[in-house]
Amino acid sequence: MLREIGAPLQLEEVELDEPRAGEVGVRIEAAGVCHSDLHYMVGDLKAKLPLVVGHEGAGIIESLGPGAGGSLSVGDRVALLWRPRCGECEACVAGNPVLCRFGRVLATTNGLMDGTTRLHQGEARIHHLMGVSCFAERVVVSETSVLPVPDGVPPEIAAISACAVITGVGAVLNAVHGGTGQPLAIFGTGGVGLAAVMGAGLIGAHPVIAIDIDPAKLQVAKRVGATHVVDARAGDVVDRVLGLSDGGVPWMIDAVGRPETMRQAVECLRPAGTLVAVGLSSVDATVAVPINELVQLQKRIVGALYGASNPRLDLPLIFALYLSGRLPLDELIGGRRPLTEVNEAYAELRSGGIGRTILMP
């Protein structure tokens, strides 16, 4: 529970209502410790308090609300999606469900798709994060927020695949065009950045350049597909990327979300190159880019929320690639902790811990 911005999370007993129409109850098996939750915890992003955090999770369906189900059944293993899909709005019909109109409902109400919550302590209502709130033993979510997980995919892998992996791999598969045989660089080698490195390997980009300030993370990047690494603490990043890519990369992924890295990323682009931004920042953060550099060199900056993915198509693909050995997602798991150690997990994240820590309720 997040009760106060900047304060530690609190482990509390709360009441969880039964699922309503079109909702399912899920027992959580694994939840990933993601930097996006930290943005809410420190106030970079705004939400109603008190709030149960956690949005990267997987579990087992325990109950179905009225009318819910369809292809879902009690006992199914599922990954949780932090973007709903109504299937009827313009974005959903156009094949861009991560921009579903109900995403705004979840963000502004901190409830489920009807704008209300299923969490409370007596009469005091408690809010949901991104329609998931999986730092908990059990959750109630919209049936559009779950996707079946095939046999052979562990809960930890299912959890991170539905956020970090689909964001990083998806950014490469969906926002990078014609990248085969072309240089591709990734700023940041946390969970999302490492997934982007794997995605670059899938499309046959070359060279694949990983950039970070942590040598240990760069070693992991090498193991999962980076052909070259750049330690951002040693020398000029832009000069080294330009040197490794024969004058600039046509594609750059920024998985950090800081104005400094985005500005450097633009400088690393060759003429007509594209920066794909996937890292979030505070709501008031901006990046200054020279206008003439954009116009005269025809550089572009595009955003890719959730990897610009269609989760119901892309997540099964990710699971299949993992099961076939094409995506070494086990390399992303940094450690496992009980739910009681959530604050220790975030302290580790802030200090630069390697890999995704998994909470096991």
Account of the 3D structure:
The protein has 361 residues and is an alpha/beta fold. It folds into two domains: 15-163 and 309-359, Alpha-Beta Complex (Quinone Oxidoreductase, Chain A, domain 1); 168-305, NAD(P)-binding Rossmann-like Domain (Rossmann fold). Helix content is 30%, strand content 23%. It has helices spanning 35-42, 90-93, 102-109, 155-175, 191-202, 215-223, 237-244, 259-268, 291-296, 311-323, 342-350, and strands spanning 15-16, 23-32, 51-52, 57-64, 77-80, 119-121, 124-128, 138-142, 146-148, 184-187, 208-212, 228-231, 249-254, 269-277, 300-303, 333-337, 356-359. The strands form three sheets. Strands 2, 4, 5, 8, 9, 16 and 17 form a seven-stranded mixed sheet that branches. Strands 12-11-10-13-14-15 form a six-stranded parallel sheet, with helices on both faces. A four-stranded mixed sheet has the order 1-6-7-3, with no helix packed on it. Helix 5 links the parallel strand 10 (184-187) and strand 11 (208-212). Helix 4 crosses helix 5, helix 4 (155-175) crosses helix 10 (311-323) and helix 7 (237-244) runs parallel beside helix 8. The chain is globular and about 60 Å long. The model has no long low-confidence stretch (mean pLDDT 96).
Give the helix/strand layout:
Elements: E1 15-16, E2 23-32, H1 35-42, E3 51-52, E4 57-64, E5 77-80, H2 90-93, H3 102-109, E6 119-121, E7 124-128, E8 138-142, E9 146-148, H4 155-175, E10 184-187, H5 191-202, E11 208-212, H6 215-223, E12 228-231, H7 237-244, E13 249-254, H8 259-268, E14 269-277, H9 291-296, E15 300-303, H10 311-323, E16 333-337, H11 342-350, E17 356-359
Parallel strand pairs: 3-7, 10-11, 10-13, 11-12, 13-14, 14-15, 16-17
Antiparallel strand pairs: 1-6, 2-4, 2-8, 2-17, 4-5, 5-9, 6-7
Helix pairs in contact: 4-5, 4-10, 7-8
